[in-house]
Amino acid sequence: MLVSASDLQTYMDVKFSLKQLDAADFVIEGLQSELEAYLRRPVEVDEITETHVIPSYFQGVPATSFFYDHSLSTTDNGISYIQPSVVLSLRNTPVVSVKSVSIRNLSQVPVFLAESTMKTATITNASQSGTVVTFSAANSFTKGQRVVINGVTPSSYNKSSFEITSVTSTTFSVGEYPAGLPAYVSGGTATATGNDYVVHRYGIELFRGFPNDTVEVVYSGGLDGETIKMFKLFILRAATREMQNMHDDVVGVKDLTTRNVAPLETGFSERELLALRRWRRRRI
Length: 284
Known about the structure:
By secondary structure, the chain is an alpha+beta fold. The protein folds into three domains: 5-42 and 224-279, no CATH class; 46-113 and 197-221, no CATH class; 119-193, Elongation Factor Tu (Ef-tu), domain 3, CATH 2.40.30.180. It has four helices and 16 strands. Strands 7-13-10-11-12-9-8 form a seven-stranded antiparallel sheet, with no helix packed on it. A four-stranded antiparallel sheet has the order 1-16-5-6, with no helix packed on it. Strands 4-15-14 form a three-stranded antiparallel sheet, with no helix packed on it. A hairpin with an 8-residue loop joins β10 (146-150) and β11.
């Protein structure tokens, strides 16, 4: 949550009871959900898994259409053709990073695709389990990319164009090594690349696959609400109104008499929503 009950106590300059703290959590969660429904996107970056089906029309171009691209010709008289790329618009934008993209066809066997971006990392350690070696390195690689390992001592760790089978922000693993490698000593750089898809703020552009293939995308997306101070301020304002109304209602019920207090506006005001429109996701 962008706002905590402690933040609300500081903003209102009050001390909540335990039950009021629980109530404040309900209010804050509801208001953030209301804000996300209005903006049509998360206000905090989170990891999401989405499944899409490649359409049969390729963004308005028949699936059987191909275009001549002279830049791909290998000889003066060579002819090369390219197929239109598929754009998959992800639901929780802006996209911050993509962890993996896998595709299933009629065989239903998932194949991990490789991002079309060259990335490098410095290796600091390596450990082996069977034929899989896990390298320690701060990286932004994606599962499915092919990696080249250079400069490691001992040199038996150096490899050319092997697929990354698993990855975290601090490690990546590749297989097909012979068992029983000597212990890692020092050094090494890794360069990973691919040619299957490109990441955009709105989704991914896919250069592989056929109509009706199923694509699973694991990615981090959403607005970085911590850096947009208006979100936190407006949630605090709305939560203050909600808590004041709740207090008046509770006291009135306990006293078995109305307090004749005009209720404050609940939720976000029209003026507040108007100020937040610039971050609203628009459907075109």
